[in-house]
Amino acid sequence: MVHFNLQAILALAVTVSALPADSPTQYVGPENGNLVIVGGGTLDDSILQRVIDLAGGNDSSIVVIPTAQGDPSYDQNAANAGDFRRLGAKSVTVLHTYDPEVANTEEFVQPLLNATGVWFGGGRQWRLVDAYAGTLTQQTIRAVLDAGGVIGGSSAGASIQGDFLARGDTESNTLIIGDHQQGFAYVKNVAIDQHVLVRNRQFDMLNVLKYKPGILGIAINENTAVHVWKNSAQVFGASYAIIYDGTYWSRDGNDPNQLPDDSGLFYFLREGDEYDLGLRKVIKSS
């Protein structure tokens, strides 16, 4: 089991903050560890089991953060915590505050020091920013990933993993470009949307690409996940993930007679398909 030293986490945070903003990196996703990015809805056990497996199996330590939901308080079954236990995970802890001063304390982050997995529940992603951005909690969660752990999340817990925060508006989640625009950036230069087909959102990401030229858009339907490690993004689950990279891709290899301009292009990936985030191309189709 991984155990983190708080002083080492703080030293790492200072080192990272001193790097230039355009410092080159090898990977779009995490160099160490894994992300499980889920499009919301009712989840099949296979999605949560993937998180458990990547965290180290039933002996792993998973911290569940339900803050996005906005409830006054949470019990120990909140935000899929009960499901993780039902599937055999022996150590599952629900961790929550709305107060960034609390989130910045060593006492609050104690459960994260032994964690091998972190799970963000659904709700409104701006609540995660208001509670945890710039705090010791955010740094310690990142340390879990950098040590080879897994970060997962569904709905709001998916979007927060992106660099640009899709649907971060405090007034309405119908606005894909809102007053909170910075996510936790576990995948760099990427915006992530969720519930995409169920809520007829498939065209919304095009607005983000116009607002932030060069960004990669990923939109995931319900009960569907994208597993990211390094530059690999593999789709699994019941439905589709949509890629917005300004190109066209077809499973059968045929070119259509007519296409919109690059700003209106997107395509669908399904379970077993794999996308290279660095090359921005499909590298495996099922």
UniProtKB/TrEMBL annotation:
Annotated keywords: Hydrolase, Protease, Serine protease, Signal
Entry annotated with the keyword Signal: yes
Signal peptide (residue range): 1-18
GO BP terms, alphabetized: proteolysis
The keyword Hydrolase appears for this protein: yes
GO molecular function: serine-type peptidase activity
Pfam families membership: Peptidase_S51
Alphabetical list of InterPro entries matching this protein: Class_I_gatase-like, Peptidase_S51
Transmembrane segments: none
Similarity section: Belongs to the peptidase S51 family.
Designated name of the protein: Cyanophycinase
